[in-house]
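WARN retry 2 of 3 for item q-0093 after timeout on previous attempt; input resubmitted unchanged.
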Amino acid sequence: MRTARVTGRCGVALAIALSPLLAAAPAHADGPQVVKTAWYWAEKTTVTPVTTLPTLPDQANAASGVPDGDLGVGYVLDQAASKDKMAAVDLDLTTIPVGSTFSSLLMKVPVDSAGQTVGTPDISACENIDTFTDGAAPQALSAAPPYAAPTCVKGVLANGAWTFDLTAMANEWSQGTPEYGVSLVPTLLAATDMKPFSTALSGKNAITVKATWSPPPAQTVPSTAAPAAPAVPTVAPPPALSGGGVVPAAPDAPAPAVVAPQLPAPQANPAPNAVAIRPAAYAPRSLTPSTLWWLAVLAVGALLALAWITQNDPLVPVAADPRRARFARAVRTA
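OK item q-0093 returned
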């Protein structure tokens, strides 16, 4: 039993410790759907045949080497803009809330084994800056949507499919950048590294997109509801006496009035706190003079009488002593 309790406490502690990590985990792990695709071929508008095209077998679309419904990507040495074929793929992001944060968005495009791959393909996905028209047949290269070259990311070929990491683009789209999908184009390398190739990629229904994202944090709105009224105290009934009597009931105390709190108006410079003044209770006193009052009156009267006597005493001149007069004359003549 002790071991079971210890194990249970450890489990609870581990759950509490991991709760922040679990709360921060992405809320969704699904991806948007591919809504339209198209691909473009320089040979649709070329007057003079391009002589450096790879030799392709006879098939449904032998000139391009791309079966109907697929997407073509390729490069030839004498083709303008470093590409002979390119494709465009658009995604539906309307099911993901604006402001969401993507931790990953991966698009996987399989290679169609029914098509012909010539050379060593090197393909990148670039963010489109304008819309395009959906279509299964190849369109003129001039109709391809423009794309932002700095956003291009190289694809990785593994297990017969190309995988493109579009996480950075997805976060831009989630923050309000217009989303027009991506273009699949030959990777732009140094001139000496560019090698001719042509490949056929599976179309719209075979492309898969997986994404992991978290919705934007919910914004809390401060509540404007009035504060709850204080609870009214209740008076318990008096207990019964042992002799059968009952303690007289106390009079019902009036319920305290609930006053709605009033918020002070905002002030630019708050006034200093004033000192609270408590009014003193009035206590009535007797009007009869006390003993101390009579003693004070008598003392004042005695002082007044003494002052009157001393001020009205006449000054009587004193006769001069003849001996002192002779002594004074003797001192003056000495």
